[in-house]
Specification:
By secondary structure, this protein is mainly beta. The protein contains no helices and 32 strands. The termini are far apart.
């Protein structure tokens, strides 16, 4: 496994290859640890445990912020699916176990890797037939954990989707089953999210069926006929707006994606911008801690991963000149949006080391541009409404431009 840590400017802080497992591991997932560093988990062939099928299990390891391995933990299982850091300072892993059937295995561990509890969900198919369950998704919302799965039988073609709600003690609160749309379909709960105090989940079909959910009772309703939302992945975002906004990417071609933002689920996207990806396509989008988003894509021919940082509206904001610059030709400085309410992006035709905001009284606030690149994102939400001057400075040049701050 190779793990790379980059800072907020895209600079690699360390790059480590871990060769501590004697066999093949696959499907690793990573989460932030509660103290520092990360937890990584994957399906593993390296350490078979006799009380399962003796072939593969779940391998978890904790790595500190310097990239050093603090501990490893092997959990007897059949296969790993997901890991989340829970709000009570622990971690939950989702996988499956195998005896005569394939059942869901949910395991909670603490920061030292000690198992707190395990819950095995056995689910026979209708008519007492032998069934299998496949783990598909794991999410915590408001101190409850939602486990997505699919269920099928050797005598059936296709599978139905399942969704369980459990508490942080591992007890099942309710479960629901979503029938497949066509007999040969395999459907699963691919994501669940809360938006404007309402709950929704999405299946994995090509058109992405969307359902409203009552989190208390588990009642659900297909609402695809009344909405226009098409997203590959969702993140709920409060960083750039006064109210909850759902964001994500929608594929146009294999190498072009629309970054879309919705503030209503019953209307088309109120903002979208095209995002170019390599021929390997888009892989994942997550919120950045300091605003905007981190987008991961892949280049098949080059054998490389491409990491891009965007601003709140999906415009690539940092790291390389190839990242969709917005500055017009023959311009020296460009500000957007202008007028601005909260977040202002400053872009110039040259790299600069600092930028200043000057108010109508001539008072100056200086911001260092640590990446020494040609962009800087400024939080101007605390400024009073009015006209301000931006001054950009490098070793040889100084340029000024005005912008309007809205209340």
């Amino acid at each position: 496994m190779r793990l790379i840590k980059i800072n907020q400017y895209g600079v690699v802080e360390w790059d480590t290859i871990y060769g501590f497992t004697p066999s093949h591991e696959f499907g690793p997932k990573i989460v932030n640890a509660h103290d520092s560093g990360v937890l990584v988990a994957s399906t593993s062939f390296s350490y078979p445990v006799d009380d399962q099928d003796g072939i593969q299990d779940i391998l978890v390891w904790k790595i500190n912020e310097e990239g050093e391995i603090l501990w490893q933990k092997v959990i007897a299982a059949r296969m790993f699916n997901s890991i989340i850091a829970t709000s009570d300072g622990n971690y939950i892993l989702l996988g499956v176990r195998y005896t005569e059937t394939i059942d869901l295995l949910i395991t909670k561990i603490n920061d030292e890797g000690v198992i707190i509890w395990q819950n095995i969900i056995e689910r026979p198919w209708d008519g007492e037939l032998i069934s299998w369950e496949s783990a598909t998704s794991l999410t915590e919302i408001d101190s409850a954990v939602y486990v997505g799965a699919s269920i099928g039988s050797p005598e059936e073609v296709g599978s139905d989707a399942l969704l369980y709600k459990i508490d942080l003690k591992g007890d099942i609160i309710w479960e629901l089953r979503v029938p497949r749309h066509f007999p040969a379909n395999d459907i699963k709960v691919s994501s669940i999210f809360k938006f404007n105090d309402r709950y929704y989940f999405k299946d994995n079909m090509f058109d992405g069926e969307l359902y409203s959910l009552n989190p208390t009772t588990g009642d659900f309703k297909n609402i695809n006929d009344s909405i226009q939302i098409e997203l590959i992945d969702q993140v709920v975002d409060n960083s750039c707006d006064d109210s909850d906004v759902i964001t994500g990417l929608m594929e146009i071609t294999e190498q072009k994606f629309n970054f879309r933002k919705f503030n209503r689920l019953d209307s088309a996207a109120y903002y979208e911008t095209t995002f170019d990806a390599p021929e390997g396509g888009f892989k994942k989008i997550i919120k950045s801690r300091d605003g905007g988003y981190i987008v991961l894509s892949q280049s098949w021919s080059g054998g490389t991963m491409v990491v891009s940082k965007t601003d709140c509206m999906g415009n690539v904001a940092f790291w390389t000149e190839e990242c969709n610059p917005k500055i017009p030709e023959n311009a020296t400085i460009f500000l957007y949006p202008n007028p601005v309410k909260n977040v202002l992006t400053v872009e110039s035709s040259f790299d600069f080391s600092e930028v200043s905001i000057i108010n109508s009284l001539g008072q100056r606030t200086v911001y260092q541009n640590d990446c020494k690149c040609n962009r800087k994102i400024l939080d101007v939400s605390n400024l009073s409404a009015g006209v301000y001057t931006i001054s950009i400075t490098n070793d040889t040049e100084m340029n000024v431009i005005k912008f309007l701050k809205l209340q």
